[in-house]
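Field guide to reading this record: the first block holds the primary sequence, the second block holds the structure written as discrete tokens, and the final block holds curator observations. Each block starts with its own label. This record concerns 2Fe-2S iron-sulfur cluster binding domain-containing protein, catalogued under organism Sphingobium psychrophilum.

BLOCK 1 — SEQUENCE
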Amino acid sequence: MTIKVNGQDFPPPDDARVSLLDLLREQLHLTGTKVGCNQGACGACTVLLDSRRVLSCLTLAVQADGRSVTTIEGLGTAEALHPLQAAFIEHDGFQCGYCTPGQICAATAMLEEVAAGMPSYLTVDLAADRITLSREEVQERMSGNLCRCGAHNGIIDAILDVAGEHRP
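BLOCK 2 — STRUCTURE
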């Protein structure tokens, strides 16, 4: 029994009550995933579980047994930023930065959801071979991730920038 976190295998915790958030932060020392409300309302703890976004504060670590977890630490490095990380910097998509890891993980999964054709009111421009999202759709799809500083415009701009380059 193992949980693959950022490509490395770890044993699940002995206590079945441990949240994925606590496993990541307290046992694996991956502190990029943030504790926000600890009630699933803010999205600061968003990580990818088998490439789908989940709230790690509401997910038991044992639910990730045999699955792959990607945290912000697993998306890019200082030398090779993930496209969304670079776009957040370019578009000033953060102020205090506390929500940024969850925002970037959620946006990564959201772009994959869109590319996979999850129902929405998006437009896929097959001639241009790119995804076209409206600002309103990005806001709706990211509504589970809150920014208390008010950097939402920069966050949306960063996602739209990357979505324009994303290939379906």
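BLOCK 3 — OBSERVATIONS
The chain has a mean pLDDT of 90.
Helices lie at 20-27, 83-90, 100-115, 135-141, 152-165.
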